[in-house]
UniProtKB/TrEMBL annotation:
This is MFS transporter. One of its GO terms (molecular function) is transmembrane transporter activity. It holds the Pfam family MFS_1. It comes from Maribacter polysiphoniae. The chain crosses the membrane at residues 20-41, 53-74, 81-98, 104-122, 142-165, 177-199, 226-248, 254-272, 284-303, 309-333, 354-373, 379-398.
Amino acid sequence: MGVVAKIGIKDFSRSAKILILTNLVYAFVMPVIDIFVASYIMRNSNDPSKVMLYQLAIYTGIPITFFINGYLLNRVNIKRLFSLGMLLSGVSMIFMMSLKEISYTGLVLAGLIMGMSFGLYWSNRDYLVLATTSDRTRNFYYGLDTFFYTTTAVVVPIVIGWYLMTGNGSSNEGVNSGYKVVTAAVFVFTIIASIIFHFGKYEKPRSEKFLYFKFHKLWNKMLQMALLKGLAQGFIVTAPAILMMKFFSSEGALGTAQSIGAIIAAIIMLILGKLSKPKHRLKIFSFGLICFFLASLFNAVLFNSTGVIIFIFLLLIARPILDIAYFPIQLKVIDILSKLENRNEFAYILNHEFGLYVGRLIGAGTFLGIAFFGDADIALRYALLIIGTLQLLAILIAKQLLKQQTKLENENI
């Protein structure tokens, strides 16, 4: 019986290592975008619906930019597009902080700019990972990537949270001044990440056509998973900040809660990324979905400060665990079908984003619908539980997808 070689950094190409380093630097930006922009809106408006409107604007900007990026890739170097995506996140925050009041128009514009940032960043990043890694190394790649993200999610929230609360006084004006300093720091990190990325060498997708409407039946399963994933993304990024600001009214408490859960998540990610293999992806994915369901259940049953802490703790474990399984599954399907159908890999990345977008609209719409016909508290309490329950269906879909994927792969060897 042969010895299976362990995957390590040495198994990545130079360009893949530079991409990992770029993502490490940009990981210091992501917790600010995920957590503190939402808390800034809550602090200055005390309206969860405005947070959701901002999130919807982001999610509308993402697929539009994915589509535009498909055309730009044939004319503009991918390095510039990827770098622009990172820089725009800082631009969006600067625009947000410049608003004299949190108006609906200002929120939509800030959200669309952030959506453009995410669209350029994620559409090109997905392709870059696909181009610079193999199926054998992707568990480790995403384990390493999420380890960086969860590690910065330990440091960044607690530092920023307590800086906002102790370094600028307790007045709203003082805290808002602190947010502006944080925004300046974010912009500096995006510039550094952009500079690092330009040391790599990356090629554009192999063919120019990227827009298709009919795909293999295996891809339809992938789209079903994308829709269910999008359900949670509809408001899961902003839900922790809304809940924490509701029950604790403190960025310091928000930062501490994020950091404690992220420490455990970081350790789990490093171990899973190093030791897990492609055959373990379904089990990892299922465990992540169960953690998400339990998080939403505790929030619904308790709906108090204790429930929020348990919710954030389980969520911080669930999100990276889901990513370490979901993304390699997605990229493996693209690997197989792009060769089988002789299509540009970006065609699948773009189509997948529209699947996510439909799910995000349904997820955000569920929250806004309950908030409109009931109230925001009912939405915060039960919309998460509805979506957490629906997401469990993804376990069955993933099982069917992996079975069809293996069969298709064997037929084409």
